[in-house]
Amino acid sequence: MKIYKAGVEREKVPDVETELEAINAYAKTEMTSEQIYTFSVVLCDNEVDRDFEKFSDEALGALSELFVGKTGIFDHEWKATNQTARIYRTEILKENGVLNSLGEPYAVLKGYAYMLRNEKNSELIEEIEAGIKKETSVGCSVAKRVCSICGEEAHVGGCGHIPGREYNGKLCYLELFDVKDAYEWSFVAVPAQRAAGVVKRFGASDSLKGFVSSKQGGRFFAEYEALEKDAVLGREYKNTLRNEVLRLGLLCDPKIYEALSENANFMGAKELENLKEAFEKRLEDSFPLKTQLPGRDKTVSFDGDEYMV
Q1: Is a pLDDT exceeding 80 seen at residue 150?
Q2: Confidence band (pLDDT; 50, 70, 90) for 148?
Q3: What local confidence, expressed as pLDDT, does residue 8 receive?
Q4: Which residue has better confidence, 31 or 146?
Q5: Integer Cα distance of 143 and 35 in angstroms
Q6: 189-208 mean pLDDT
Q7: What is the C-alpha separation between 43 and 18, in angstroms, rounded?
Q8: Which of 55, 79, 111, 278 lies at 20 to 30 Å from 92 by C-alpha?
């Protein structure tokens, strides 16, 4: 499951030397304060989001370690040419008296990032300063989601509690545990704060089956299973048809079989059906069926001599 959520702001560095030391741990050559630009990124918090999920304190702690050193890109496109900044330290912030919607002490994971002050980044730095490039989004992998009502781990066909509904006055949501990895963080166009917009993309495996097995895609699971069964039948029919075409091709001419043996794997059902029909016609013309009895409207004489012993 990938989580996308964040915000960005200009960071006033309180201790330049300490920050430079942390930054230079990732640089091959020692950088100076004149060469770099720093800013902070709100990565995620422990608030219940619009999908009725929230990071546990355990998850925030794990993410605070995993995001150190992670690169900043654009629109989650994993390309080297897209790299523009890097997080060099993180911290979890809590303010006395500030609570989340559940009445728990509000906690936010904040990352501190740097980029080079050069011609390539000058426009981006100006946009950050002006508040135009403000929204960011992070990608991380979370393996465990626990229902707030019964404590059961969420899965397809699980406990039956629906996130977002209330049960005896208690809100149902999924709490996230067991962080596996933090991938990257990106500048995006989607607003990051909960009130403005949160974007998530799910799937431990980036596949259709992964999606229908998730909470968001669970309502399509029955339809997916029916389609999958139909697909199995379709594949079986196509394999049978392919084998029959190859058999008929071999009967027509061994060279045809050689030509088709590889190409038939890439043909669709309609192409195979046309070939089957053509081969059957050719074989019928080359080897017409012969009967032992004369045809219709012909006189048949029989004197029994054929059966004399």
Answers
A1: yes
A2: very high
A3: 46
A4: 146
A5: 39
A6: 40
A7: 22
A8: 79
- Categorize the per-residue pLDDT at 264 as very low, low, confident or very high, splitting at 50, 70 and 90: confident
In the block, tokens 């001419």 appear at: 253
Residue 172 has phi, psi (to 5 degrees) of -90, 125
Give pTM, 2 decimals: 0.55
| Dist CA 265 CA 171 (whole Å) | 53
Q: What is the dihedral of CA 117, 73, 185, 204, to 10 degrees?
A: -160
Q: Give the number of other Cβ atoms within 10 Å of residue 70's Cβ.
A: 23
Residue 68 CA to residue 40 CA, distance in Å, equals 13
CA 88 to chain CA centroid, Å, is 27
Given pLDDT bands bounded at 50, 70 and 90, which one contains residue 197? very low
What are 51-72's pLDDT values in tens digits? 788 889 999 999 999 999 998 8
Question: Residue 309 has what pLDDT?
Answer: 55
Q: Which residue has the tokens 């200009």?
A: 10
> What's the residue count for the chain?
309
Q: How far apart are CA 109 and CA 94, in angstroms?
A: 9
Write out the two tokens for 277: 């029909």
Is residue 291 pLDDT above 80, yes or no? no
Query: What is the DSSP track for the chain?
Result: -EEE--EEEE---S-HHHHHHHHHTS-SS---TTTEEEEEEEEEESS--TTSEEE-HHHHHHHHHHTTT-EEEETT---GGG--EEEEEEEEEEEEEEE-TTSSEEEEEEEEEEEE-SHHHHHHHHHHHTTSS--EEEEEEEEEEEETTT-PBP-TT-S---TT-EETTEE--EEEEEEEEEEEEEE-SS--STTT--EEE--SSSSHHHHHTSTTTGGGHHHHHHHHHHHHHHHHHHHHHHHHHHHHHHHH-HHHHHHHHHHGGG--HHHHHHHHHHHHHHHHHHS----SS--TT------SGGG--
